[in-house]
Amino acid sequence: xxxxxxxxxxxxxxxxxxxxxxxxxxxxxxxxxxxxxxxxxxxxxxxxxxxxxxxxxxxxxxxxxxxxxxxxxxxxxxxxxxxxxxxxxxxxxxxxxxxxxxxxxxxxxxxxxxxxxxxxxxxxxxxxxxxxxxxxxxxxxxxxxxxxxxxxxxxxxxxxxxxxxxxxxxxxxxxxxxxxxxxxxxxxxxxxxxxxxxxxxxxxxxxxxxxxxxxxxxxxxxxxxxxxxxxxxxxxxxxxxxxxxxxxxxxxxxxxxxxxxxxxxxxxxxxxxxxxxxxxxxxxxxxxxxxxxxxxxxxxxxxxxxxxxxxxxxxxxxxxxxxxxxx
Length: 327
Known about the structure:
alpha/beta
């Protein structure tokens, strides 16, 4: 049994002061008589009315409890569900080179990428998702997991300067491939986000793309950054000065990587555009979900209402018949 308006059950707490008030009232209303010896009354037979004295109060409390339960709307449920879920495996390859600190996206490219990636993860509860970071080198921030709480916590801890600076796009793809190649999922995807051109690493981007293709892994590439110049924070002493730096994204290579692996290339020049890119990828890589669900709820309050009515009726009858002359 469940309650549709469960918050009404807090009204049951009101019974506590009511019971305390009743006890104190009975103590004050009891008559007293001083006698020298009470032994003579020890075996005096008690009237059945003495046993019924507190019954009206108990009935009233029970009626109040039942009325509160009626307000909470008790329901019985009858439900069955048959679902078939097929998740996919996704590796997020994120560029953490210092150029990602440029503030053409707000507050900067990296923070914007982290926010949108977190939103993307929240929208894919059935998928295995992992994170690969790359700059001049690459490493796995989080292997494939369905524990998205841990994954989101790791995303928030991503920052620039964790590894040697540079942009090793090929190494980033290759590292992500090693995490996906043995996967049994029917769909394996890499989402690569970068703001530069490949200038480090032992594996070229196109070689990495061919490796990904051989394992049936699709790569979506995202070039992040505005067109033209972008403000880049440059520390000078205890202050930060901004220098305008040219935005240089190797769109040709990113497009070829995506084309080789049957993926798509996207360009994100603003926060809103970056969000749209992830939304588009989300639509392209939908999880298969077949759910058959039946749910039925029956209201059961009328039984409690009937019981409350009978309690009140019985209390009234007792007070106006058997216990009429008892205070």
